[in-house]
Amino acid sequence: MGVLHGAEVTQIGAGSVGSHLAYGFGPAELRLNLLDWGTVKAKHTEHGRTIYDTTQIGMKKVHAAKQKLEREFPGTKINAWPYSTAEVPDCEFKSMFARSLVVILVIDDGPEILRLAALAYPITELIHAAMHRNGDSGHIVVSVPFATPCLPCTLGIRQAADIRTLASEPASSLDIIQIAEYSARMALDIAHSKVTGRRISRWDTAKDLIYITNTREELSPDGPGVHYETSQRRPGCAICNRQMPS
Amino acid sequence: MMNALATRPTPYPSVTRRTQLATRALTSPMVLEELLGQLARLNAKITALERRSAQPMVMPPASYLPVQVRPVEYDEPVSSAPPAPRQLKVRRSSLLDIFD
């Protein structure tokens, strides 16, 4: 863990998944650019839905996360950005992404997911994490510049409207934490590999879609499990069919 | 120059003071009785504390509402051979209803 002390990582979104994910980064003592415009409300502090507590109601989420993480993990530095992604111009994001070992996207706004995924694709590794209905499952998409398909190809979406946001979705906090911790672990593995030059051994990195079930279902008939899949680039995709600049 | 050791105050009472302590009048029987009474009360307290510490600690009852408990329905073990593994793929449409 100590090898990542002070390494720069960017995370967009500090809601339920995002706050637990950022907390998972704590032991690594990163310099984390954390962006979210939201404010901590009472409902966010109930039943462990986020990492925020009742003393932080009314604070910007990024300031609350900064307060908690820097207090509990003294080596961690949070650069708090209390803005909506739509307020931040492309050039600012590109500059931030270029400095980041990995970018984590944990928002549920379709147009902004597609915009930021396209901006990050040629620059650095991107991890997109999200929960599904009732928190029964979740997914993590890992986009590696010019090595894996881009996020829209992996998710099989053509337009932002294909993504439907679930507002105030009921879900178990432990299920949310499960996806968040898995995402944090994968992001740290990527960062560690980029710093040390050592291969990632935890998972088959050719698999870019990680589907996590929190219950038993068709893909995981015996109970909670993790399913890894390789996606394909769609012919003519304007994002991932480009060649790596030489 | 004065000798610092010689002028330092002695930590013990002077001989005169010791004499005064030795010849002090005895405490009256009334005060002694009161002290013995206090001693008895303290002993009783100690005995009570010792008895209490030997007993198991019982937590005060919580004021939560009782939780309704139902029996868990466990799966029956399947005796037949497991089906051959199928190559299942994630349905991409299942990834598009999301929250963060």
Structural description of this entry:
The complex is a heterodimer of chains A (about 250) and B (about 100). Chain A is globular and about 50 Å long. In chain A, helix 1 packs across helix 6 (about 175-195). Chain A has helices spanning about 15-25, 60-70, 90-100, 110-120, 150-155, 175-195, and strands at about 10, 30-35, 75-80, 100-105, 125-130, 135-145, 165, 210-215, 225-230. Chain A has about 250 residues and is of the alpha/beta class. Chain A has one domain (about 1-230): NAD(P)-binding Rossmann-like Domain (Rossmann fold, 3-Layer(aba) Sandwich). The radius of gyration of chain B is 41 Å and the shape is rod-shaped. Chain B has helices at about 5, 15-20, 30-55; one strand at about 95-100. With about 100 residues, chain B is mostly helical. Chain B has a domain at about 25-55. The longest helix of chain B is centred in the middle third of the chain and has 26 residues, at about 30-55. The interface of A and B includes residues 16, 133, 139 and 157 of A.
Rg of chain B, alpha carbons: 41 Å
Query: What is the CA-based Rg of chain A, rounded?
Result: 17 Å
* End-to-end CA span of chain A: 33 Å
Q: How do the SSEs of chain A run, as a string of H and E? A: EHEHEHEHEEHEHEE
CATH C-level label of chain A:
Alpha Beta
What is the CATH architecture assignment of chain A? 3-Layer(aba) Sandwich
Summarize the biggest pleated sheet of chain B: none
Poorly predicted runs of chain B are none
* Beta-strand fraction estimate of chain A: 15-25%
Multimeric state: heterodimer
The structure class of chain B reads mainly alpha
Give the SSE string of chain B.
Answer: HHHE
- Could you tell me the mean pLDDT of chain A? 95
Q: Which two chains touch over the largest interface?
A: A-B, 31 and 12 residues
Helix content class of chain A: 25-40%
For the record, the count of structural domains of chain A works out to: 1
DSSP strand count of chain A: 9
The number of helices of chain A is 6
Number of strands of chain B: 1
CATH topology type of chain A: Rossmann fold
